Amino acid sequence: MKKLIFKKIDAFASNASTGNPAAVVYLDSMGDLSPQEMLQLAKEFKGFVSEVGYVAPGSDTDFCLRYFSSEREVAFCGHATIAILNDLIASNKALEDKPMLSIATQTDRLMVENRYKDEKSVYISAPSPRFSDRTVNIADIASALQCSTSHLDHTLPVQIVNGGLETLVVPMAGLDSILAVSPDLHMLNDFCKQIEVDIIILYSEESATQNCAYRTRVFAPTFGYLEDPATGSGNAAFGYYLLRNDMWDGERIRLEQNGCRDQPNFVQILAKNPHTEACQVWFGGGAVVKIEGQYLLQNETKFF
After folding, report:
1. Which domains are delineated in the chain?
2. Which of 85, 147, 278, 286 has the most CB atoms less than 10 A away?
3. How distant is the alpha carbon of residue 271 from its chain centre?
4. Best CA proximity match to 168, nearest among 151, 187, 191
5. What does residue 258 show for φ and ψ, rounded to 5 degrees?
6. Alpha-carbon distances of 285 from 2, 9, 46, 105, 172, rounded to whole Å
7. pLDDT tens, residue by residue, 170-203
8. Is the dihedral of CA 139, 142, 143, 147 positive or negative?
9. What is the pTM of this model?
């Protein structure tokens, strides 16, 4: 039996929004658990959280992280990273005044800007973008989303961008159009696998709150659930998309996300060195610890 330190942390949460919950397991070494055990825990948490983040001290970085959904390992999970880094800084006085931290995922080495003392938040540098030249038919997208093609904005580009996850970015005609989308999990999962993307992000230039630049919604059926209520990686890919299409100058903006008109979650993004080869989108937010305890891992996992 293995005893693991466990927390449930709601990333991007605030007084006005519930954010996005992540389960976090703290390890002395990433080798303490096998990938099969990490997946086993994530399966146990299906319906409770969308992903489980595992964190341990790093060798050539401050920390190393891995992420699992109930279906498979996830290359990068933004909201779990926000949850973990906020909690690490809040729980460790030695990190409180450290302006920058470094983390390693399975695929990237990333930086973390510590704004916890002043803003109770951190900002994560998203992986460098990769833009695909693959095209996706508008009618096929509308069919997969189970909406009319008139709900999509045909004046703006549809694009596949990888900012940590392979992301299909889809412009919507307005707030009513984006909120009306209600796809089927299995149908959308088949579509994502067919076009070889991890997630789909819809966006509208019309938002419900005045201080938000865009409304977004993120669907992640390949990870075993339909909609992600607040997303780091998807909105980072969206930031790269905006820069690529000259729709953003890189200054910090606030995005509202989810399918609820009047109670959205909020994610902030900014770009450093925009419109250069060194450009990086950073996403930021706070987090709230909701549950902490011990997880006992044995042949049958049990949570206490």
Report:
1. 2-126+287-303 (3.10.310.10), 130-284 (3.10.310.10)
2. 85
3. 17
4. 191
5. 125, -175
6. 32, 13, 24, 19, 25
7. 999 999 999 999 999 999 999 999 999 999 999 9
8. negative
9. 0.94
**How many Å apart are CA 143 and CA 183, to the nearest integer?**
9
Q: What is the dihedral of CA 165, 283, 11, 87, to 10 degrees?
A: 110
Residue 46 to residues 20, 22, 40, Cα–Cα distance (Å): 14, 11, 10
Q: 């790093």: which residue's tokens?
A: 58
- 233: buried, middle or exposed (CB in 10 Å: 19+, 13-18, 0-12)? buried
Torsion 137-164-80-1 (CA) sign = positive
Radius of gyration over alpha carbons of the chain, in Å?
Answer: 19
Could you write out the DSSP letters of every residue in 148-172?
-GGGB-TTS--EEEESSSEEEEEEB
- Tens of pLDDT, residue by residue over 94-121, are 999 999 999 999 999 999 999 999 999 9
Is the alpha carbon torsion for 243, 68, 45, 32 positive or negative?
Answer: negative
**β-bridge mates for residue 291, sequence order:** 8
Q: Please measure the distance between the N-terminal and C-terminal CA atoms of the chain and give it in whole angstroms.
A: 14
| β-bridge mates for residue 109, sequence order | 104
Could you tell me whether strands 287-297 and 302-303 are parallel, antiparallel, or unpaired per DSSP bridges? antiparallel
